[in-house]
Design brief:
Chain lengths: 126, 364
């Protein structure tokens, strides 16, 4: 599996061949607070880069999760839909949101590295 | 308008509060622990809430003060005993709710706790019935602290002996640090607890004591999940000037005598609704699954007719499920009725539910 790349909308992506795994960052979960509802996409759904792909809700508000990369969904993580709180405990590990078959590796390459993302978060506190 | 701060602003900051603008004040929405932990610790131990943004409105006067207030508030103020409190409303001429409030009879008159966003208008509305025989004061030198949760009574009794003998919805004066505090046994979380009116100068000392007894600070976020589980209304969301107490399913809060005799704003309309029922009514709503139906979610019947709107909705940490309140056409208001909730363009099943979602007995 490749190194994780990061988007400005606080998603992470890792790549295994042409299948990407997408989740939300630890920083995102800290901003959201207690996560109480997750909706993940079904296999077969086509998503565009920066298109809405999943939903995450905390006690405070509902937010869309965007796909940082375009492709076709191969799997949504049902485990987090059943146990939304698990996203708070392991956002960048077991609590990934969806996997998709990508079309353009260039989209992955253009995302931020871990260092770039950490810097981005520092410069854009919310 | 300048953003206002309560006397505890810096204290909250040091406790790690995240602030949001609320009713013209910078108020803590949550602290480090987050909404769910704050909610649970209130239900299992005790939490304190800075509600000093709410108006503490004091009225004094002769016998005519009661008549004046009863023109706009449908409580039986004449028979309200000293140190007893009632939940009531300020009503407009159409019977719509200008604000909901807690009114307490004091030695010299009344104290009314008003919602922060409404307090200025409330005072204007009340003042039109007052005369030169009546004095009134919105006291901004006082903080208001709600201490809520099952351990509240033991913790406060140790500091201020005597509070444990207060019954729910009664109050009294107590001595603390050379000052008289007015404390009522009340709150808005569905838990046993107290509301403590204390000078801005002494409030930090009281909070120091509470924190040393493991009482957690609770922000507006958990205040909302707690009150919603307890089936209590939030003004500006579940109640407004276009909604009357019958529609709000709060007719119990209009005194029996006042329902019969009237003499308050909107009585004709309310009398008619009491006899014939209202077209729409406030209900509890439980989504079948995990989806959260937030404010403004459209409600449909099982036949796909639009029948109402959600006015408050969240995840209830103690119920461990999503909970909501809203208004539906009265024929769909029976507990158990299947409904549909439109969330992000998709319809999800749900049911009309009993209120409150979470029950606890008060000390009576």
């Amino acid at each position: 599996m490749s190194e994780k790349k990061f988007s400005k909308k606080h998603e992470w992506v890792s790549l295994d061949g042409d299948v990407a795994t997408v989740g939300i960052t630890k920083h995102a979960t800290e901003m959201l607070g207690d996560i109480v509802f997750v909706e993940v996409p079904d296999a077969g759904k086509a998503v565009e880069k920066e298109g809405q792909a999943a939903v995450v809700e905390s006690t405070k508000a509902a937010s869309d999760v965007y796909s940082p990369i375009s492709g076709e969904i191969t799997e949504g993580n049902k485990a987090i839909a059943d146990d939304p709180g698990s996203v708070n405990s392991d956002p960048e590990g077991a609590s990934w949101f969806f996997k998709l078959k990508i079309k353009d590796k260039g989209e992955y390459d253009s995302l931020m590295s871990k260092d770039e993302y950490d810097k981005f978060c520092k410069e854009n506190p919310s | 308008m300048n953003v206002q701060k309560t006397a505890l602003y810096n204290y909250h900051k040091n406790l790690g509060a995240k602030f949001v603008p609320f009713a013209g004040y910078e108020m803590p929405i949550q602290y480090k622990d987050g909404i769910v932990k704050e909610h649970i610790s209130t239900r299992t131990h005790a939490g304190f809430f800075d509600v000093s943004h709410m108006g503490q409105f004091f009225l004094e006067g002769d016998e005519t003060l009661i008549e004046a207030l009863e023109r706009i508030i449908p409580a039986d103020l004449k028979n309200l005993k000293i140190n007893h409190s009632k939940y009531s409303f300020i009503l407009n001429t159409e019977g719509g709710i200008i604000d909901d409030l807690i009114i307490t009879r004091t030695e010299k008159g009344f104290c009314i706790i008003l919602n922060a966003a409404c307090k200025e208008n409330d005072i204007k509305q009340i003042s039109q019935f007052l005369t030169k025989n009546h004095k009134h004061l919105l006291n901004n030198n006082l903080s208001l602290i709600a201490l809520q949760g099952p351990k509240s009574v033991d913790i406060l009794e140790k500091l201020i002996p005597g509070v444990s003998s207060l019954k729910f919805m009664t109050g009294n004066n107590f001595d603390y640090e050379g000052e008289k505090l007015y404390i009522t046994r009340s709150g808005y979380t569905g838990e046993d607890g107290f509301e403590i009116s204390i000078s801005n100068k002494k409030v930090e000392k009281l909070i120091d004591y509470l924190i040393s007894n493991d009482v957690k600070p609770i922000g507006l976020g958990a205040r909302d999940t707690l009150r919603l589980e307890a089936g209590l209304c939030l003004y500006g969301h579940d109640l407004n000037e276009k909604i009357n107490p019958v529609e709000a399913n709060l007719k119990w809060a209009i005194a029996k005598k006042r329902k019969e005799v009237g003499g308050f704003n909107g009585w004709e309309k309310i009398k008619n609704l009491l006899a014939n029922g209202s077209e729409k009514i406030r209900v509890g709503i439980k989504p079948d699954g995990k989806v959260i139906a937030r404010e403004n979610t459209k409600i449909f019947s099982s036949e796909n007719d639009e029948i109402g709107l959600v006015t408050s909705g969240t995840f209830g940490p103690s119920v461990n499920a999503p909970v909501a309140m809203g208004y539906v056409k009265s024929e769909f208001s029976e507990v158990g009725t299947s409904i549909q909730l439109e969330v992000r363009g998709k319809k999800y099943g749900g049911k009309i539910s009993e209120l409150p979602f979470y029950k606890k007995s008060y000390v009576k």
